[in-house]
Amino acid sequence: MIDRRGLFAAAGALCAAPGLSLAAPATLGADNPVVDAFVAEQKFQGVVMIGRKGRASYARAFGMADIEAQKPATRDTVYAIASISKWLTTIAVLRLVEQGKLSLDAPIATWLPDQRPDTGKTVTLTHLLSNTSGVPNGFMPALKADPEVLKREVSAAQAVSLFCQGDPLFPPGSRFDYALTNWFMVTAIVEAATGRPFQAVVEELVTGPLKMSHTRAGRIDAEAGVAASYYAGPPLARRENARLAVMAAGGGYFSTADDLLVAAHLVFDTSFLSDASRKAMTTILVPEQDYALGGRVRSLTIDGQVRLAGWETGRTAGYRSVLGHRLDTGDTVVILNNTDLSQKALDLFADKLLGAAPRA
User: Pfam families, alphabetically (predicted)?
Assistant: First the structure.
């Protein structure tokens, strides 16, 4: 066990971050009528956590992590977080920008010289991280034609060559297209700029220094402590979560509520990232989607005032997740679920937990 002083020392520059705080003890838990009503209505199965500046004030687990094995969900259960992976990826990219190894505004041909000239010279990392590249998603047609594609691992560079070379759909930056292949290209760029595997870079720059000890990508579905995926039913039925390693950046990470709670605080509230990087993460580039880089920034009406919140959501197989963080107070809500619930229902639930008025 690392003591508090050892933890700060291991965190390097992170230890100087203002407002650094750790998650509350695992015994935390109390009745919350909003949570209780939602759990009863939706037959919710998963973990709900509320906190401020990285310290949980409420944490409860409901239902089963694995129905067949009769393993109940706990605060420490690991869930697939799907597109919240894009948030982790964006943090890694911004840290590489801070190190001078990447540029948000340089053409992607800088690192992908074999990319077709029209997109290679006009698309930037900003376009990829905001899902506005215009590069068509060649992966989905390939998967539809041959489902075995999900069983054949390819490198990031190979994925870009196979699935990211179609004719542009629109000029970069002019439209939003939530294409997984944007993140294939981000992965290949990170690997080209660093000479290292993508997941190793994320561990070195993000999950390691943020002490996200339960957060990683890979085929860990059957490991102890990882929640199984289910169709909503009734009855609940096991659901496969097939994926390739190259999908990690856009949706392949797993995590816990505590890891996400503390990470949101350190990323949004402290000097873990530079001022310029935090501004980039919280500047909306696609207003109709509230989308910035790697996630959304939503406007919540709380006590009659509009408050901004970093808003990350994830959906893959039977997993659903929400990470909402108020940028003014540091209040955070984390919801992790493994029973295929409505993402809209989870978002509205998270709104209530942060005290937001119902949406119009």
Answer: Beta-lactamase
**Structural domain spans, the chain:** 20-353
Burial environment of residue 279 by CB neighbours within 10 A (0 to 12, 13 to 18, 19 or more)? exposed
3.40.50.80, 3.40.630.10, 3.40.50.150, 3.40.710.10: which CATH number matches 20-353? 3.40.710.10
Give the pair of three-digit tokens for residue 191: 């690997």
Structure tokens at 248: 């990690």
Contact 46, 227 (CB under 8 A): yes
This prediction's pTM: 0.92
Beta bridge partners of 307: 300
Residues of the chain with pLDDT under 70: 1-30, 360
pLDDT digits (tens, 9 = 90+) for 298-334: 999 999 999 999 999 999 999 999 999 999 999 999 9
User: How far apart (Å, rounded) are the C-alpha atoms in residues 210 and 206?
Assistant: 6
